[in-house]
Amino acid sequence: MGKIRVLIANRPRLMRELVLATISDQPDIEVTGEIKNDSDIARVVEESRPDFVIVALDRPDSHNALCEDLLLRYPTMRILALAPERNSSMFFWAVVNIRSKGIESSEDGILNVLRGKEELVGH
């Protein structure tokens, strides 16, 4: 099995650095890029076709338009959305419609999602 390809699109900078520190030394994960400006996300996803995109989450109780748009265009991609100021994280994927699941806001929570250890049962 190949490496899990991850695109980091978190803001603020400190959050991007924490996510990178968590996953960059994992042997089964490859960071394909780091996006500093939200307006570049769609273009870079199109170019790099990652397995996962890690984004900032403004409202932890629902998915945003960016997640919906990306999953409609790339239904096999997964999105991990982090809201550090609320100590909240969500995992988004597409089946027939977009689903999400709250996850543990920790290094283990992030790595378990990236490695597919979180069950894909959501609400």
Topology:
Layout: E1 4-9, H1 13-23, E2 29-34, H2 41-48, E3 52-56, H3 65-73, E4 78-83, E5 88-94, E6 98-102, H4 107-114
Parallel strand pairs: 1-2, 1-3, 3-4
Antiparallel strand pairs: 4-5, 5-6
Would you summarize the structure shown here?
This protein has about 120 residues and is of the alpha/beta class. The chain has helices at about 15-25, 40-50, 65-75, 105-115, and strands at about 5-10, 30-35, 50-55, 80-85, 90-95, 100.
Q: Can you characterise this structure?
A:
The chain has 123 residues and is of the alpha/beta class. The protein has one domain (4-114): Response regulator (Rossmann fold, 3-Layer(aba) Sandwich), CATH 3.40.50. 29% of the residues lie in helices and 28% in strands. It is built from 4 helices and 6 strands. The chain has a 6-stranded mixed sheet with strand order 2-1-3-4-5-6, with helices on both faces. α1 links the parallel β1 and β2 (29-34). The model has no long low-confidence stretch (mean pLDDT 84).
